[in-house]
Design brief:
Shape: flat
Largest sheet: none
Distance between the termini: 47 Å
Number of strands: 0
Number of helices: 2
Radius of gyration: 15 Å
Length: 61
């Protein structure tokens, strides 16, 4: 497998995992290229995310 393809898969996994943690949404266990358009739209749909996390060194405003 070409290195750039592996990089793309790692990036996709990182983005999917981060969004899943923030939203609580999940995707079926399948390679990203096998997910349907509807599955991807539902997964990535905007939701209000509330968090108390602040970047290090930043005040709370």
């Amino acid at each position: 497998m070409p290195e750039s393809h592996l990089d793309d898969e790692l990036l996709a996994l990182t983005l999917f995992s981060t969004w899943a943690v923030l939203t609580g949404r999940t995707l079926r266990a399948a390679p990203p290229g096998e997910l349907t358009e509807e599955e991807l739209i539902e997964f990535w749909e905007d939701v209000p995310v509330q968090t108390s996390w602040h970047a290090p060194g930043r005040g709370r405003g």
